Amino acid sequence: MIVPFYLGEQRDSEGRMIAEIWTWNFEELECVHNYIQWLFPLHERSAFNPDAPILDQEIIEVFRSNPYLRQNLLRSFTVMLQFYGLQRHESNDGKVIINQSEEYQNRKSEWVCIFNHNYLRITRILKCLMTLGLESEAQAFYKCLQQIYHEDSNQIGSETFQYWTMAVKLNTTV
């Protein structure tokens, strides 16, 4: 179910194609709550979206071995980075770097605040990237989040930051 969706061959449970979600504006990304589980599937059932796909070892191996699926996962990640006011680039030696974009100060108010649901989304994104073969992106995202936490720990909270830390240290096998 998730592989055909990620290949752009099948709709999600709400009838949306992945390419449609990639074009959503920030308001849609903020206010719609049942797409994030499709863009960033996990091996545990979602408490918020019972129709969301669930990863198993076979699906994980398909993602890890298929560059097109990982490229599409990277595109989903890029959409969310833009939503958070962040950007991805590579250094001259090929190292993935994620940092604040010019839009960060405008976007920050949308998600850097006490008890924001985007903190759960970020945990999901980190776990998914680690599981499906984009560990470098997950680690770079975490490093950027560390800096944001350092600047705004009173808004993010230590418990949230601990979840993010555990997400990038998780075992990628089911």
Describe this structure in words.
By secondary structure, the chain is mainly alpha-helical. Helices cover 60% and strands 6% of the residues. The protein has a two-stranded antiparallel ribbon with strand order 1-2. Helix 5 (57-65) packs across helix 6 and helix 8 runs parallel beside helix 10 (158-169). The longest helix has 22 residues, at 135-156. The protein is globular and about 40 Å long. The model has no long low-confidence stretch (mean pLDDT 95).
What is the radius of gyration?
Answer: 15 Å
The outline comes out as globular
Instruction: Quickly give the structural class.
Output: mainly alpha
Q: What is the tally of helical segments?
A: 10
- Terminal CA distance reads 18 Å
Low-confidence stretches: none
Mean pLDDT level = 95
| Percent strand | 5-15%
| Beta strands, count | 2
Percentage of residues assigned to helices: 55-70%
Features:
174 residues; mainly alpha; two-stranded antiparallel sheet; 10 helices
Write the layout of secondary structure elements.
Layout (H helix, E strand, L loop, with lengths): L1 H5 L11 H5 L3 H6 L4 H4 L17 H9 L1 H18 L1 E5 L5 E5 L3 H8 L6 H15 L2 H22 L1 H12 L5
Antiparallel strand pairs: 1-2
Helix pairs in contact: 5-6, 8-9, 8-10, 9-10
Summarize this structure briefly.
The chain is mainly α and 174 residues long.
